[in-house]
Amino acid sequence: MTIAASVLDGVRTRRRRVAGNTVVVWVCAAIVGLALLLAVFGPALAPHDPDAADLTYANVGPVAGHPLGFDSQGRDLLSRLLAGARTSMAGPALVVVLAMAGGTVLAVVSAWAGRWIDATLSAVMDVLFAFPAVLLAVLAAAVFGPGLTAPTLVLALAYTPYVARVLRGAALRERAQPYIAACEVQGLSAFTICLRHLVPNIAPMMAAQGTLLFGYAMVDFAAISFMGLGVQPPTSDWGVMVSTGQPGVLQGYPAESLTAGLCIVVVVVAVNLLGERLSQRSEGR
Amino acid sequence: MTAVAVRPAGHRSGRATGVARFVARRLVMLVATLFTSSFVIFGALYLAPGDAVSTLSGSRTLSPQAVAALREQYHLDDPFLARYFQWLGDTLLHGDLGTSITYREDVSSVIAARMGVTFQLVLYAALIIVVVGVGLGLLSGLRGGVVDTSILVVTTVFAAVPSFVAATVLLSAFAVGLGWFPAVGTGEGLAGTLWHLTLPAVALALASLAIVSRITRVAVRTELGREHVQTAISRGIPYPALVRRHVLRNASIPVTTVVGITIASLFGMSAVVEQTFGLGGLGSALVEASLARDVAVVQGVALVFVTAFVVVNTLVDVAYAVLDPRVKAGSRAS
User: Where are the membrane-spanning stretches (chain A) (predicted)?
Assistant: First the structure.
């Protein structure tokens, strides 16, 4: 194929992909919406008690009334997955809220103040950037003991520099816009301008970042729970279930680990695609 | 006549000092980051609620002699900063990271005994990421069409698979189900090690490989669309030479950065993979130690991981400066 033909071909496939993209985005939005509904109502929807163990049913496959079968302790798998939706998503959601709040404040202050404040904050962010999030969470768990509080706070802290760095760029671009100067001429305070004018204008970027961040947070949070340092068994949580299903995997009963893993992957794929789309739109503005 | 010969001599030496200044700046940042990280790792111990002795002993009951030994070893009667510098001095000068409560040996020997597996695993995964990830990205970016679409779909899914889920799926399918690979352990000799580490390395590499492939694809596409490439096409430069000289060289810059960052972050993720495959590496030591609240081991391993992470990142930034003559001293690789 000649280059020109391949370039033309690229243009054509891109057009086709735009049409396909809308469907993909709607499917992703539906999956994320469903996941959010499950996070709210999942525990109530569980057909059986997710913690009721009956060892006579250990690792039994699907039967009537139990469409996914049982885990290694004879608990209904579907009920555990539904109940686990909340714990698997509440933690990451809180991480995103905290990191977005912290990152936005730092980004806006940096962009607004400029000069040495900006330089200092940027340098601090560069150093913080160097610390892998999961490692920091493990360190915190070692010191504070396993549980949800330490990983949530630590992951939020570790993600803040990422958010701050991306939003600082956006805030700097807005800062240079004439409407900000117009507000300043009118005598509005810096705080009012930032809150009422600057932040709403970087909101699409924030939405995109928050969505992408939720995907990362979900993976990291699940990894921490998988290691036994986050959500504690017997609470049902997707990350914990992948871990408690490990002996089953070695014995040839991978259902618990694999279904929980699948739940994580499906939600994260949907969230990532949605986040990418949002960030394309916010940049293409 | 080549372009280099035409260039005035001063230009070359100017570039050399530019790179040197960039490298010097990165080295200063490296040291600053290591200082801060070691401070965080050290300071975390004292953030814990309650007495440092109870944190250090993981809330175990100790004899008064053991408590006295701990106070002595960690200089708990000295001020905080003095403690930090003493700890740092012990670490740097004597390689002394304290004693593990659970393993009952020096932390440095625990680390030394387990370091090999982790570094082999990370190296193997890094190779897979570079070869398969960049390869798929190039294929996807240069070919287009069905190949591109299928690679894009596969990498989109792979990018969302956490390494512990990948590890579980691979373990279930290829070790338990098909029996092609061993489920646990590290194996003997080169062939045995490779055989045992294949599944863990693939699990560790999967998500990063997908990200690297996607970045490579975008980089190649961007370069293909550039004006100088279009000009080269119209001048009739043969396709292989065009790709090699004009596309790959420029596309290699963002790709190097992402490869470096992902490889550096593999150290942290090695923990979950080692746990799944029963490999006694640093990562599993980190997890076991934090579950047992063996703070000395956690600090030691965290220090090794952060150092590896920061050093790899610095190396990448330096490689970036060498690859890209446009990088000026003071500008950041991002």
Answer: 23-46, 89-114, 126-159, 211-231, 257-275
Q: Is the pLDDT of residue B293 over 50?
A: yes
- Contact at CB, B305 and A249, closer than 8 angstroms: no
pTM: 0.80
Confidence at residue B8, expressed as pLDDT on a 0 to 100 scale: 45
Chain A residues touching B161 at Cβ < 8 A = 265
* Gap between the Cα atoms of A98 and B73, Å rounded: 38
Q: Where are the domains of chain B?
A: 114-333
Q: Do the Cβ atoms of A3 and B233 come within 8 Å? A: yes
By the 8 A CB rule, do A95 and A154 touch? Answer: no
**pLDDT at A41 exceeding the cut of 80:** yes
The single residue listed with the structure tokens 């709040």 is: A101
Residue A285 CB neighbour total at 10 angstroms: 7
ipTM for the assembly: 0.77
Set of chain B residues whose Cβ sits within 8 Å of the Cβ of A10? 144, 221
Contact between B287 and A227 using a beta-carbon 8 Å cutoff: yes
CA angle B296, B299, B300 (to 5 degrees): 85
| Distance of residue A88 Cα from the nearest chain B Cα, in angstroms | 14
Contact A78, A69 (CB under 8 A): no
Tell me which fold the domain B114-333 belongs to: MetI-like fold (1.10.3720)
Let me know: does A263 contact B189? Beta carbons within 8 Å.
no
Three-state secondary structure call for residue B216: helix
Contacts of residue A17 in chain B, CB cutoff 8 Å? 149
Which SS3 state, helix, strand or coil, does residue B275 take? helix
- Tell me: the pLDDT tens digits for B224-271? 888 888 888 888 888 888 888 888 888 887 788 788 878 878 887 888
CATH code of the domain made up of A85-282? 1.10.3720.10
Which among B103, B166, B137 has a CA at the least distance from the CA of B258?
A: B137
CB–CB of B291 and A243 under 8 A?
no
Q: Is B168 exposed, middle or buried (0-12, 13-18, 19+ CB in 10 A)?
A: buried
Cβ contacts of A133 on chain B, cutoff 8 Å: 268
With beta carbons less than 8 A apart as the criterion, state whether B312 and B47 touch: no
Residue B331, pLDDT above cutoff 50: no
The residue of chain A with its CA nearest to that of B211 is: A272
Q: B306 Cβ partners below 8 Å, 6+ apart?
A: A130, A131, A132, A135, B34, B37, B38, B41
Tally C-beta pairs within 8 A across A and B.
156
**Pairwise CB contact (< 8 Å): B295 & A142:** yes
